[in-house]
User: Fold this.
Amino acid sequence: MMTRLKTWVSAAALAGGVALASLGAGTARAQETIKVGILHSLSGTMAISETTLKDAMLMLIAEQNKKGGVLGKKLEPVVVDPASNWPLFAEKARELIAKDKVSAVFGCWTSVSRKSVLPVFKELNSILFYPVQYEGEESERNVFYTGAAPNQQAIPAVDYLMKEEKVERWVLEGTDYVYPRTTNKILEAYLTAKGVKPEDISINYTPFGQADWQTRVAAIKSFGSAGKKTAVVSTINGDANVPFYKELANQGIKATDIPVVAFSVGEEELAGIDTKPLVGHLAAWNYFESIDTPENKAFIQQWQAYKKNPKAVTNDPMEAHYIGFNMWVKAVEKAGTVDPDKVIAALPGTEQKNLTGGTSQMLPNHHITKPVFIGEIKDDGQFDVVNKTEGLIPGEAWSKQLEGSKDLEADWVKLNCGNYNTKTKKCGGA
Amino acid sequence: MIRIIILSLLLGLAAPAVAQDAVPADAYTRLASDSYGDIEAGIAALAASGDPRAGAVLSALGEGRLLYRPADKALFIKQGDALADARTGAPAQAEGLKPVRANNKIRRALDAAQGQLNLASPDAARRREAADAVFKARDPVALPALDAALARESDAGVKRALAAARAAVLLAKPGTPDAERLAALPSIQARGDGDAIAILRTVAASDPNETVKAAAGRGIQQVETRLAIAAAAQNVWYGVSLGSVLLLAAIGLAITFGVMGIINMAHGEMVMLGAYTTYLVQDAIRAHAPGLFDWSLAISIPCAFLVAGAVGVAIERGIIRFLYGRPLETLLATFGVSLILQQAVRSIFGPTNREVGSPGFMSGAFDLFGLSITWGRLWIVLFSLAVFLGLLFVLRKTAFGLKTRAVTQNRRMAAAMGIRTPWVDAMTFGLGSGIAGIAGVALSQIDNVSPNLGQGYIIDSFLVVVFGGVGNLWGTLVAALTLGVANKLFEPYFGAVLAKIALLVFIILFIQKRPRGLFALKGRAVES
Amino acid sequence: MTRTRLIDPKGWIFLAALAAFCLVVPLLNLGVAEGSGLHLPTYLVSLFGKYLAFALLALSLDLVWGYCGILSLGHGAFFGLGGYAMGMYLMRQIGPRGVYGNPVLPDFMVFLNYKELPWYWLGFDHFAFAALMVLAVPGLLAFVFGWLAFRSRVTGVYLSIITQAMTFALMLAFFRNDMGLGGNNGLTDFKDILGFPVQAQGTRVALFVATGIALALGYLVARFMTVSAYGKILIAVRDAEPRTRFLGYRPEHYKTLAFTVSAMMAGVAGALYVPQVGIINPGEFAPTNSIEAVIWVAVGGRGTLVGAALGAVIVNYAKTVLTGAMPDAWLFALGALFVVVTLFMPKGIVGSLIERFGSPRAKAKLPPEPEIAPKLAEEGQG
Assistant:
């Protein structure tokens, strides 16, 4: 009896071993295509935002292949699902680079997922394009940030509210994680510098997925009834936004009383809400679907045809991927190779027309120049652009408002450093 | 800008007969513009004109029905499919029109203008809104008009609002005599809200007269006491409302887990299915019978019950019936089912949120003794209680309920008595799932309708059922309300996260004290 | 009753396979040239290391679930705490190499304006202290929690749900940036461990082997606990707690000890997991993670120890393959796996094997199939 058990167990172990070994195989094939990794969550809490970006990348790659690919080779997308699980992001990034030998990866949404994959990209020397607005305070050789840094979103929005809406009292409402924390710190410093008194700033954090906003919205309402024009600057994360806006509407807070300007609410998020009670609340982005340019029109048409859905909406991170992907294509063609070192060297300075009528440029700090638009929510779930910055704003990796970071400078072209300290004249990091 | 509008309107009230030809020639032309500044000026000019068409034009602008022709700056109002000339109201034909855009500033100017137009409205509620607008603007020029309106007013509520507005203006106006300022304080105090406190604070801080200062100080204290009481009551209400959501989420689980002993990890997904059913029903209604939209939730309830119930029966027949008496394995299997259901919904509907609208009767709020109660939440509270009572009735008073209890308490004995236990199992599980589906209809009103919807409620649901005592519906009710109210009472002091953590720790410690929950089943408890 | 051997044939197979694995993997990775078809890429070494860390977690869970009937839905908490203890050590090793170049404070503290290191970070620059904490923090939490719960005779689903509440509360707490542990981002960007660069090939192989050894030791400890006289009483508690109590034993003492040892093992698993995946964040405390760990045990076979470890490896291997091969539909496959295992292999993979081929004695030691009719509790409240 025991021998049979042994046979069984060893057979199972052997089968497992073979299967595991097979994980490593399959890379010997000749490189007739250029592989591009797509690292976006397709399940779990972040699937709601990231799935669209996966589709957008697949569309961009298909379009490029129609034009003949890159360097005469077809592009081959490699999609994996990191399942909104941060350690899994690192594991999947490793798999994409080491096993699938992709030339660049487009992916991540949350800061923590980016932080999780960072060491992997540094170690294996590959390229990551990160398409989402984030808290800044970072510049890595292997990462290109195509989303907005705080100075490309938060500060222009606050300027607009101060100037146009004459706001004197501020509620900075955010989800408790690093992006809202940093953004609110920057804003607090900025507002104080502009002469706003500390008692006129209220900062509050709620947990992820906060669903019951009754108390908070009532608190905002009472904070706003002090006789001074009040606005809410919202860095509330994805999931929690719908219940937040529903509660605002329920408690009758209209944009004309207390406007809410959000940095994480776009067309995609509004598709899940009845926007009639929200008309007039604001969002600050570098792209809106409603912006009327020929490039944008073509992009929207392409997207709706690709999704086979005439109601499919486009949003800011999609545009970031559009810009990032095209910049990568240009840099690869300029370098004549997909070798990461050469592409990383070729990327700064690369220019690409964005979808809103300007031309974005990759800066030496691996951020890009972007226009900033302020939009008001319309009743059809789109945004009405009410303000636009003069020209394009360069992304700042290190905030000028924060102690500790204002002396730092990122320049990968001249200094070859992501955190050069202008005071000590030393490159800070390892 | 608003000052001018209010002033002009109030003056207009006092002397309503402004000649037609006084309409500035460019009021309409200014509106026909792409620039917000021009539009705002246009609104002011139009409001000041006393033009009888002003009301119609302004409301068309507010609703996005005001169009203009860029070529000659002619203005049109869209009514359904037809067009009318804005100046005359006569039917018109035109091509190449653009809507006159509105932003927050425009909307505020519109609100002020329209509110003021309503000061002479026969509707008392509208007059009151107008009085509140003046209260907020606090503009001395409005004083004579306010006096006139006060003299005319017969409704007591509106009169109070007008008096408060007048008092606010008096306090803001430089040079009001001390006695008048002192006399103005009580009407402000009577308002008793945050705005009133703000005014009183300014007076208490900066009034030149010490008596007035002291009176304002006393007023602040009184209003603050009242506000504190109201805030406490408000928190209790928020707690009841949160508790009702917990109750709704947990009550289906109280059947599948509490009564049947199945650790049903797919419970949250039943709630999600209910929410998606609501979405589908609303979609169908929007497409085929828009008139029924206010009934969409009522129609969704039976649909959600059937959909979730049917899925529940299928799960029971397909999987769970092989696992009775092995509760820990039901955990494993239903966790698998929950993954499959989530992914299925994600594949069919996509990962993004679906929009579920609120019918008219669920939006807005009303005032109850200083408490602001939103209709939507009130309906959810009532609905959850109705579901609870209905379920209690089914389990306690019907033959089916009797059989359910018999089977879960002693399966073999029940079978020996001739009860078809497999049928009862399937129906009971279907009932629990269907109730979860109904909960989904209500939750679609306050939360994301996404594949992750159920995940947000599953842990809380288990906690509620366990805290209340497994197998006891009343326990579930008391537990849900207790947790809801406690959470909301803690929240203002500790913040949302610490309040939640404190509650979790409390539950852990409470279970040490009463290892079978609040209301333990007496005697030979169902436990394995 | 005859004395049970510490290592039975099943155990020998397991240990031999584990030893072979721990020899072959480094050999194929370090000993075979990169170009060769037999070469094992370094990233797989870390991946296997992660599987082994999960296997140790599953083993610790099986010790309490399989042998004393405590279904913990909160073992992820102990795993996470162990991981955080190790993460704090690794953070302190970064020193001035953070982006702000602060020699003492980790980056996230610099931009949250911390002026000095919070007290609970003190000592974590020493490996020995961190290693002690890896055992002590989960152990202490489990001891207090278990002592309270088992003394009050909280059992069954009530116990499961409060363990879940425990890990949920910890998750919420660790998500707070005010905790001073990095909030949602957790701890990441590690550089050195014991002076060796974390990302170096050699370090990775060493970590992998260390995890293998920890798993083997964990198995021996668990095995020792379950076959000793103590283990017999543990099993008696699992199968009939009131009767054991009536015989004069104090079940709560036995359970608390098992729970504490199990939590320490989970903590070690977490500590070995963190340097290999490169991040620890509050997501590890998510209740679903703990439920998943329970599922590994169930898939492999509850109450068999070897099965738990095997289950963890199989399910995680399936996850790795499926998230890459069918990113849009892998949840269907994983969900179906759970359902199928429950329905057709109620005793898990190893349990089913034993049932088919094992000796009567081996069969007898499997956890009993509960009766079809709900068991009547012999100790109601009233």
About this structure: Confidence is low (pLDDT under 50) at residues 370-382 of chain C. DSSP finds 15 helices and four strands in chain C. Residues 9-288 of chain C form one domain.
